[in-house]
Amino acid sequence: MRQSPVLDIAGVLSDPATTVVVTCGSGGVGKTTTAAAMALWAARRGRRVAVLTIDPARRLAQSLGLGELDNVPRQVDLGDLTDRDGPVEPGGELWAMMLDSRRTFDEMVASHASAERAEQIFANPFYKTISTNFSGTQEYMAMEKLSQLAAGGEYDLIVVDTPPSRSALDFLDAPQRLGSFLDGRMIRLLSSPGRGMLKIVGAGVNLFTRAVTSVIGGQMLADAGQFVQLFESMFGGFRERAQATYDLLRGSSATFVVVAAPEPDALREASYFADRLLAERMPLAGLVLNRTHPPLARLDIAATRAALDDLGKSAPLATAALSVHARLLTLRAEEIRLRSRFVGAHPDLPVVEVPALPFDAHDLPALLEIADRLTGAADRSA
Question: Boundaries of each ArsA/GET3 Anion-transporting ATPase-like domain copy (predicted)?
């Protein structure tokens, strides 16, 4: 198997210059668990860490021993938690939250508009629709929440757990898509209805306007116009903050970690994420390959099969153990083949493997064990 550089997760998380780590990958590969384990490892070593999940699933709260998560960071009680490296270092804290797009939108409006105008915006039916259902709202609000956390300066490190799909990276397009939306002709017309409608009529497009009204309704069109007029003074600030967060993610203080399992579909998605990040010139740390099956002994598949033939049925327990080992070796051979294909496409991308464990990460001790495997602490203490 062609060797790739080893991803030093411990070095990434302990580097004080690294303030943002973003995990991405397909569903079911342990991405949320990886994000939580990295955040816990960094907190135990004295960093004040916030882990933000954009994935609406509840796995992060369960892993951290919390009943639920919402849009406000909640501190995780690390208590007397210890692992191979001892207790939590002074200053170490772990906070967790789950993105609520609607609440983040509301907070953004409240902080950048007068109280009177904010109330008018909140009451607008069009705002109520786009703040929850408009395409791209979740991605833009993810950018906004990350911007808020970074600007607050309360945390040494922010770990972002993205949704389990290709749309996880849609927030990279948020500044450009937002600019296109705000600069679009319909927005300009709605923000200046008097002059805009005269231009439409003068251009002979009133039939189009009536058609739009018949489809979405005159009241909805009026609500949209009022919303845009109320929001007009805030558009510039939106665009600037989105661009600032995008620049943050491209800077030296941020890094991305792609998470995958040794399966064809998962590694195909991982390759997509890696290619997309590299094309965007985003700082990509490397790949975490979860749930691998390294052999438990140094017997290769040929030696194992020879031993099985020699034993026959004379030693049933030894035969059963060797049969399990043979199946693991076969599985491992397929994992090596899949990893080699990925490495061939990304030869310079660092990779770290995390072996499959016989338990789910449903509490902090389990997360610590995964963190030790992720950072190599388990290997060093073996």
Answer: 19-292
